[in-house]
Amino acid sequence: MTDKIKFILDGKEVSASNGETIWDVAKREGNTLPHLCHVDKPGYRTDGNCRACVVEVEGERTLAASCIRKPTEGMKVKTGGERSEKARQMVFELLAADMPAKDDGPDNQSQFWEWAGRMGVTGSERLPSKFSDAHPGEHDVSNPAIAVNLDACIACGACVRACREVQVNDVIGMGGRGHYSAPVFDIHDPMGLSTCVTCGECVQACPTGALYEKSLMDTDGKKRVVQDFDRAVDSVCPFCGVGCQTTVYVKDDKIVQVDGREGPANENRLCVKGRFGFDYVHSPERLTKPLIRREDAPKEADIDLTGVDPMTVFREATWEEALEKAAGGLKTILDRDGSPAMAGFGSAKGSNEEAYLFQKLVRQGFGTNNVDHCTRLCHASSVAALLEGVGSGAVSAPFTDAMHADCVIVIGARPGQNHPVAATYFKQAAKRGTKLIIMDPRGQGLMRHADHALQFKPGTDVAMLNAIIHVIIEENLYDRQYVQANVSGFEALKEKVKDFSPEAMAEVCGIDADVLRDVARTYATSERSIIFWGMGVSQHTHGTDNARCLIAMSLITGQVGRQGTGLHPLRGQNNVQGASDAGLIPMFYPDYKPVGAEDIRSKYEDVWGRALDPQRGLTVVEIVDAIHEGTVKAMYVMGENPAMSDPDQLHARGALAKLDQLVVQDIFLTETAWHADVVLPASAHAEKLGTFTNTNRQVQVGRPAIPTPGEARQDWELIVEIANRLGLDWSYGGINEVYDEMASLMPSLGGITWSKLTGEESVTYPLNKETGLSEWVIFGEGFPTNDGKGKIVAADLLPPDEVPDDEFPMVLTTGRLLEHWHTGAMTRRSDVLDELEPEGIAAMNPHEIARQGFVAGQMISVATRRGTIEARLRADREVADGMVFVPFCFNEAPANRLTNPQLDPFGKIPEFKFCAARVGAADDRMEAAE
Amino acid sequence: MNKHVGSGRSLRPGRKKSDKTPKGRQIDEGALAEVRALLGDQPRRRDLMIEFLHLIQDEYRCLSAAHITALAAEMKLAQAEVYEVASFYDHFDVVREGEAVPPPLTIRVCDSISCMMAGSNELIRNLEAGADPAEIRVLHAPCMGRCDTAPAARIGDREVDHADADKLLAMAPNGETDVLKPDYTGLDAYRAQGGYALTGRVRAGEVSADDLIQTLSDAGLRGLGGAGFPAGTKWKFVRSYAGPRLMTVNGDEGEPGTFKDRWYLERDPHRALEGAIIAAHAVEAERIYFYMRDEYPAVLEILRVEIAALESAGLIEDGFIELRRGAGAYICGEESAMIESIEGKRGLPRHRPPYIAEVGLFGQPTLNHNVETLWWIRDIVEKGPKWFANQGRDGHPGIRSWSVSGRVKNPGVKLAPAGVTVRELIDDHCGGMADGHTFKAYLPGGASGGILPASMDDIPLDFGGKLAEVDAFVGSHAVVVLSDRDSIRDAALNLLEFFSHESCGQCTPCRGGTEKMVQLLKSDGKIDENALRDLEAVMRDASICGLGQAAPNPVNHLLTYFRDDL
Questions:
Q1: What would the DSSP string read from start to end of A314-325?
Q2: Which of A18, A573, A625, A729 is 20 to 30 A away from residue A926, measured at CA?
Q3: Which residues of chain B lie closer than 8 angstroms to A872, CB-CB?
């Protein structure tokens, strides 16, 4: 409806559009009425309970809460006047009567005190407080980041809506009744012992500071002590691929608070990492001076600098010496052994500009395509399948399209942990009635919201998905017209899946045929269905096949190219999309232009002024192997930590140790840097300007909030330094000039200028060539393939590379934890995150633990054919019997010492999600590492 | 200077170990099995949450954290979603780890106004002195709807009139703690008296919905739960909104001083059930949810039996009337709060508009009626609208069921015309004042309707009219008579303590206002009248529902009419 309602507001005729409340209209008219329970932000339902915004409606006996009351035609509303003003003032007096005095409470700058101040309310002399010494308000500081002071609580329920309706973490409830009403965590548990995931949405919503950041408070967590900020910098979150926009508050060059901003991907929301994990930048472990390896410090695969004084291995150096040593060493080998001896790992945590410069350095300076980054370990197989099938590796629609979908499938992803803010949209959609289908061998919180939760047998993705495709075809649920017009390969698929009836596959994948049929019908027949997936799909030797099945599902049903439909691999790192787009991969120049294509290469040869390598380069794991084979001898690693992230860790670390020259540029002395010849201290995310592209194809601007520590320098400047010392003549006046050069080579960024980006904060690419508007959903009219059609590649059933046997009877699967980011280099140096998840764990089902005679909490060993680690045993019902889960972020219990480096043949991604393992008590050492 | 100390955080001294489990309380397999056994094959619907909580509370005398967690998992809900509901209602005892399970037997003693006047405080003191706390706990409880036999108590599920400590403590060891059903007219007897014949005629189309609406309108039948909304008009409204429609019966008779609904249901329940079935037919409601307060265990048992009898007799389809058990919350007598409670939530009144006739239970247009309103329908239709209307006084059509309690000789449910005066009720219906008591004041409409002085004994008691002019109302027709031996300030304090206990806590004026009024009324020395008046204003003007808006009525009248008692 677009009908406007006309009504009289304070004597003036105004109009309200459908859905607008009196409060909204008054605000639009320049009269913001007092409000406490009403959180004037997207996603917050108005509740009308605090009565701070009451107004007079002519003809009505009582006053109306303007925040929840919608005007009707001809209604006469008076916002001022003695009656409503008196009522509002009494509301504030009533609430203030129960609160500590302004300067004794948790936040003297709260919304409450701001409005109270405007009304002249400072407390109440005449109304006694409901609290007394015998019955004080609850004070709970059990959460490492958030202090709870319920003597300041006004029971407005903003925190409940934040937790339950906005983030849908469902931890906070409003317990009790009457004046005992108060927010509670779970069953009135201490916040720190509850299921709280510390997203801090409640803090951001609370109008009084009853829930407040400890980082701004005294050590008791009772009073605000940081009273003002030196600056507030608009930026983006450094962690995952969701790309939440933030505002970073700085005092004395320290970040003291991070708030969510209204970005298209987060609408003010953040997760625990983004909101409370900022302090890693201030870690005393930051690298502040260049380091050069001491002559007497040997390189070894199993070097462990944990707790060791690094000065026994490195010495400090001047920048000049370090850069000369770094570039000189690289150049010596380049001159001696040629381009094939050179390689570089860039980082998906850096900016687009850094990624662009880095791959340019490797291609133009090293003369090779041996450049890659951790995308290889995440979604390389997804990208391979997508490029093959739909001609583009990027998502077809943003994850926020879940809100427009009738059916959402999440497979092999745990967005609640790894894309927490994206997960809020999935949960909200499910609450609104969207059919949510979760497929994952491990259980997860999201399954509570799901219509179907398919905990299939690990490694049987293709069996399960082909069975679903079988049903769609067998029951004629596919979109014949769409297939005819837009799809190739259908007949081959039809033939292939004939043998995959749900009845035949039920035993294989462990999901009942009825469920498979229902899922197939739900997905195919919903008006709009969308698929999200993560590394549970991609990190297999059959990862590309898994993704091919998902692509086939969407193509045959036409569930792509429209709002609320499509294919969305949830990208892991904050800039893995952008780094890949910028060409930080061995087979492509920027924008996925093949290095082998003559016309493309000659264009780059013109621009970069030299002959370029026509062969595709080596991928991450291939480079490691090439080092062992003696081909690759020198590496430049920027912000990447292969010593932790690569499979078969001892093998990977052995390679790093074997290099003649390893230059590591990072903010910490990472496990990779332990093996370096030269370590260059560089810039953290919060210290740099640059653009970052999230999983939604949204290019956003990160801005420096604080200076780099000590002598640390900007990453992009260091790349330029190395380039110029290799004899390249690079000159950039600033990061914007790097962006301009990059964008000029990337049609996908066409029309997206630096000034447009910095002006709009977020621009989704591509822009429509005619309208200039962002295309949030692509593939509306065919696909960017040679024939314009989506190509189906049917997949066969392949077992995982290494299946359990008598010696290694369990399945090991690896992944992440909510609190720790990637290899933990950043997050383990954040006090809050480290306190929440302080040490390496291995998780097993309580039944399995009992069966094997272990006790949760004890140290166990986990062994595979490649190595053994020790970790603390966690009892977790989400892990299936027969499985053990180990997160890869803990350097003291590094999962990748165990993982299988066997690669998917297309994406070259290792099988992180499945290998054979055995567990034992920690003191009962295994010989498996031999 | 670099200050690296090595990046192995795990070796730092004094570090905490990681948790043995994922965050928060884990599911206890044993508790889960117990909950599953209790729930059986019932659908795990959200709206059944309170029923499920009753199952657990009844079986284990409390709701342990383990059971709450298990129930949450079973219902695919979060722990907080279950806990916040459990903690809202008085009749649930949440017991967290390390807390004591309540003793085997609970005695609840009503301390609302009529029972207070009859000595409930002394009764409680005597019980506490005489009961073994390991075996028996003694709790204050709000109105039990037995004000005519005050003080009222409940031992286990047995309701006790004229309770005294010795009697109660003697009942405990004798096992006299189960439900005691009074004699009443069962289905067969009711049918033998012509019951459900009208239902048959209505269903056969002999009496149309329009006929029914006209008849009720002509009779002047109004909602007798307290609001007095014309019943016929309500049916018309509900019918005007597109279906599917639902119906609710409000049996949450909690207004202190009110006991007529219990009285009728304990005597002739089918008259109310037939009224409900006819009403549901008239508005084409697909289902009736009968919400009955948990303070009436005998009525609950009667309804269970008689609804099953209706199903067996084929008079209704199985499940057409769904009995829902309250859990101890006065606010659920407010129709939108009741609807929230039926949906399995905390009983928070909703904002209006929209009204429940348009957006009610499960978002559907909903017809809601009080028990007594339905009780009259059959008689009005069978005997004609005039039969009903003519029993009232001039300008006050209809007959009313007055719950009279307090200082009168013969308290009880009194059938008397609408528009009767308190003087007539005392003298003509209750045999005068109790011996030794002189009429001083009266509550015309339970706790909410205000307190008027004996000098206003000639006001016709009905909706609106002269009562409204003195800021009082008749509400559920619960008249409590006070005498020269009663302090009006004590009475007002009792009423405000009731409202403070029963405020749902949603809106500031009611939540804070009732609590502050109690504190001010309790304070020694001179009462801060300005503060009370300011609170009165904000409660009246800015509370979401009638509870908060009416709660200051007794204080207003105390300050206006009973200055000697201040």
A1: EEE--HHHHHHH
A2: A625
A3: 17-18, 20
Identify the H or E element spanning B234.
Answer: helix B231-240
Q: Could you give the C-alpha distances from B221 to A615, A866, B292, in angstroms and in order? A: 91, 84, 22
User: Chain A within 8 Å of B513 (Cβ-Cβ)?
Assistant: yes
ipTM here: 0.96
Taking CB atoms within 8 Å and a gap of at least 24, the contacts of B13-18 are B15/A838, B15/A839, B16/A835, B16/A838, B17/A838, B17/A839, B17/A857, B17/A872, B18/A837, B18/A838, B18/A839, B18/A840, B18/A841, B18/A872, B18/A874
**Facing B541 at nearest CB: one of A83, A835, A877:** A83
Nearest to B515 among A83, A179, A185 (CB): A179
- What is the Cα–Cα distance from A314 to A295, expressed in whole angstroms? 9
Rounded Cα–Cα distance for residues A681 and A696 (Å): 31
Residues A381, A550 contacting (CB under 8 angstroms): no
Query: Which distant-in-sequence residues (6+ apart) come within 8 Å of A224 by Cβ?
Result: A106, A107, A108, A109, A209, A212, A216, A217, A218
Mean pLDDT of chain A: 96
Contact B247, B367 (CB under 8 A): yes
Residue type, A308: V
Residue with tokens 């002249």: A120
| Encoded tokens for B296 | 């009436």
Which one-letter amino acid corresponds to residue A795?
A
What separation in angstroms does the CA of A543 have from each of A76, A380, A517, A886?
A: 63, 9, 23, 20
Length of chain B: 566
Non-local (6+) Cβ contacts of A156 within 8 A are A36, A37, A47, A49, A50, A207
What are the C-alpha distances in Å from A618 to residues A349, A648, A705, A818, B393? 21, 18, 37, 32, 99
Cα-based angle A632, A638, A642 (whole degrees, multiple of 5): 65
H runs (alpha helix) in A475-575 = 480-486, 490-496, 502-509, 513-525, 535-538, 543-557
CA A593, A595, A596, A599 torsion: positive or negative? positive
Q: What's the predicted TM-score (pTM) here?
A: 0.96
Asked whether the beta carbons of residue B22 and residue A306 sit closer than 8 angstroms, the reply is no
Number of A–B residue contacts, CB under 8 Å: 279
Q: What confidence tens digit (pLDDT) does each residue in A682-692 have?
A: 999 999 999 99
Mean pLDDT (chain B, rounded): 96
Residue B2, pLDDT score: 42
* Neighbouring residues of B230: CB distance < 8 A, sequence distance ≥ 6: B216, B217, B220, B221, B222, B223
Residues in a beta bridge with A90: none
Q: Tell me, what's the pLDDT at B15?
A: 53
Instruction: Using CA coordinates, name the residue in chain A closest to B66.
Output: A187
Let me know: does A919 contact A862? Beta carbons within 8 Å: yes
Chain A residues close to B534, C-beta within 8 Å: 86, 90, 93
Instruction: Give residue A2's pLDDT band: very low, low, confident or very high (50, 70, 90).
Output: low
Using the 8-state DSSP alphabet, how is residue B149 labeled? G
Residue A3 clears pLDDT 90, i.e. is over it: no
In the chain, the amino acid numbered B373 is T
Q: What is the pLDDT of residue A302?
A: 87
Q: Please state, in angstroms and rounded to a whole number, the distance separating the CA atoms of residues B558 and B566.
A: 7
Contact (CB, 8 A) for A397 and A565: yes
Specify the DSSP element, H or E, that contains A363.
none
Contacts of B87 (CB under 8 A, 6+ apart): A175, A176, A177, A184, A188, B94
**In the sheet that B439-447 helps form, which strands lie side by side, from edge to edge?**
B412-417, B399-406, B478-483, B439-447, B452-453
Contacts of B10 in chain A (CB under 8 A): 306, 838-840, 890-892
Single-letter code of the amino acid located at A740: D
Residue (of A532, A619, A528, A544) closest to A571 by Cα position: A532
Is the Cβ of B158 closer than 8 Å to some Cβ of chain A?
no
